[in-house]
UniProtKB/TrEMBL annotation:
Residues annotated as domain Aminoacyl-transfer RNA synthetases class-II family profile: 152-447
Locations listed in the record: Cytoplasm
GO-annotated molecular function: asparagine-tRNA ligase activity; ATP binding; sequence-specific mRNA binding
Cytoplasm is among the record's keywords: yes
Protein name in UniProt: asparagine--tRNA ligase
Primary localization: cytoplasm
Family according to the record: Belongs to the class-II aminoacyl-tRNA synthetase family.
Reactions accelerated catalytically: tRNA(Asn) + L-asparagine + ATP = L-asparaginyl-tRNA(Asn) + AMP + diphosphate + H(+)
Assigned EC number: 6.1.1.22
Main enzyme class: ligase
One GO cellular component term noted in the UniProt record for this chain: cytoplasm
Presence of keyword Ligase: yes
Keyword terms: Aminoacyl-tRNA synthetase, ATP-binding, Cytoplasm, Ligase, Nucleotide-binding, Protein biosynthesis
Protein source organism: Ascoidea rubescens DSM 1968
């Protein structure tokens, strides 16, 4: 009852509190500031209340004393309510710990929006042990958690790092269309749609468009959503993912391999050096070891031998033979056992796409590569491309694809063909490895996979 009478008012004689973000608090020690954010944690006692405030740039503990703690308004606070809070930033005394090593000694606060308590409270909606699918329904609230938001920050730093490396390597960014009328990686995973009465698809890969840019812009890259109607429900397949793709000309297969490993090593290095993302990677994946150049190279035929020597069987439960696809489980067992990044090369023609160039010393295999990482397996797929019209048309024929819709892609080989190659890197896959997440779903803002298209 006593608390009912306490109203919270600002003492106008105090110095004006200037508005700052939590990431900047250490610049304002002993100054009066105003912070705005969400109540991340809350403990209200007599004479003392503790609020951990979150604003997307960081976390800070706010201490409310005396009347401020005892006021009725404070007793009504809930997790995820938004407040504007003013006070003095203080260095923590010896022996006390809190995020950033500082604390806000509050003298005033106002509520913007009170979040519900009771049955509708956030803790009831996103219980850690709840069914995964229920939590995915609450993805918009789950994103506020420390883990998911940390992964999203690492993701942002990684995409920034990738762009930095591409700039350093002289590639130009382009944005190819998402609505297309051609397939790249097999008809069975195409999402189709009606486009003003015509048949069209959501893009599986921007590769073919990137190839057409080479004579105009030189080496190019894009960071674009790709779509796959995957039937399989695995921890590394999404229906929509952020595809980092590049295409380079006048290079050979070895140049392509060195480009790919350099890109990965440099971009990871930038993420680890990033002042925000570096510590988050440490927190999410304490035993992460940065990859070193050069990556281990392994030819498909030697991988087959390795699998058989190590008693790993193919999908039919038999020994692997030349020509078998190395499916997810076997690939991961091999990669985890070897324990370092692998460039797996020279796959047989039959198990790879129509556009891949054959090796000049062995026409059974292609100048192709998958990059395999421990714990996830394949994160990148790439190859040198067929650069002769006749050979490309034979590839279409082999895969029973009618070439009409590809006239523009075929023209690429007519009007000044060139040796060229490229690759696609799955953003969520490399993040699953970097952030030690069990599934790529944890690395996507709003994951789409079989049966899920919400929120
Ligand atoms: O191996 P993929 O299918 O290769 C291509 O699409 C080429 N056309 C790319 C190119 O050469 N420009 O896919 C490339 C990468 C894979 O290594 C994987 O990391 C990711 O894209 N990926 C997926 N990620 C999440 N969910 C899926 N369903 C994925 N399918 C492929």
């Amino acid at each position: 009852l006593e608390s009912m009478n306490i109203t919270i008012t600002e003492d106008k004689s105090l110095p004006k509190a200037h508005k700052i973000k939590i990431r900047d608090v250490s610049k304002d020690i002993d100054k009066r500031v105003q912070l705005n954010g969400w109540i991340h944690r809350l403990r209200v006692q007599k004479n003392r209340a503790f609020i951990v405030l979150r604003d997307g740039t960081g976390y800070i503990q706010c201490l409310l004393k005396g009347d401020l703690a005892n006021a009725y308004q404070t007793s009504q606070l809930t997790l995820e309510s938004t407040i504007s809070i003013s006070g003095t930033i203080e260095k923590l005394p010896e022996g006390k710990t809190a995020p950033g090593g500082v604390e806000l000694l509050a003298d005033f606060y106002q509520v913007y929006g009170l979040a519900p308590a009771g049955d509708d409270s956030i803790t009831n909606k996103v219980q850690e042990n709840a069914d995964a699918s229920l939590l995915l329904d609450q993805r918009h609230l789950m994103l506020r958690g420390e883990t998911l938001s940390a992964v999203m920050k690492v993701r942002a730093a990684f995409l920034k790092a990738i762009r930095t490396v591409y700039v350093e390597e002289g590639l130009t960014e382009v944005t190819p269309p998402c609505m297309v009328q051609t397939q790249v990686e097999g008809g069975s995973t195409l999402f189709s749609l009606k486009y003003y009465g015509e048949d069209a698809y959501l893009t599986q890969s921007s590769q073919l468009y990137l190839e057409t840019c080479l004579p105009a812009l030189g080496d190019v890259y894009c960071i674009q959503e790709s779509f796959r109607a995957e039937k399989s429900h695995t921890r590394r397949h999404l229906s929509e993912y952020t595809h980092i793709e590049a295409e380079l000309c006048f290079l050979d297969f070895n140049d392509l391999l060195s480009h790919i490993e350099t890109l990965i090593v440099k971009s990871i290095d930038y993420v680890l050096k990033d002042p925000i993302a570096g510590p988050l990677v440490k927190q999410l994946n304490p035993s992460f070891v940065a990859p070193q150049l050069p990556f281990k190279r392994l030819e498909y035929k030697d991988a087959i031998k390795w699998l058989n020597e190590n008693g790993i069987l193919n999908e039919d439960g038999e020994d692997f033979k030349f020509g078998d696809d190395i499916a997810e489980a076997a690939e991961r067992k091999m990669t985890d056992t070897i324990g370092v990044p692998i460039l797996l090369t020279r796959f047989p023609v039959e198990i790879k796409s129509f556009y891949m160039k054959k090796c000049s010393d062995d026409p059974r295999v292609t100048e192709s590569v998958d990059v395999l990482m421990p714990t996830v397996g394949e994160i990148t797929g790439g190859s040198m491309r067929i650069d002769s019209v006749e050979e490309l048309l034979a590839g279409f024929k082999r895969e029973k694809i009618s070439p009409e819709a590809y006239y523009w892609f075929i023209d690429q080989r007519k009007y000044g063909t060139s040796p060229h190659g490229g690759y696609g890197l799955g953003t969520e896959r490399i993040l699953a490895w970097l952030c030690n997440r069990f599934t790529v779903r944890d690395c996507s803002l709003y994951p789409r996979f079989t049966g899920r298209c919400k929120p």
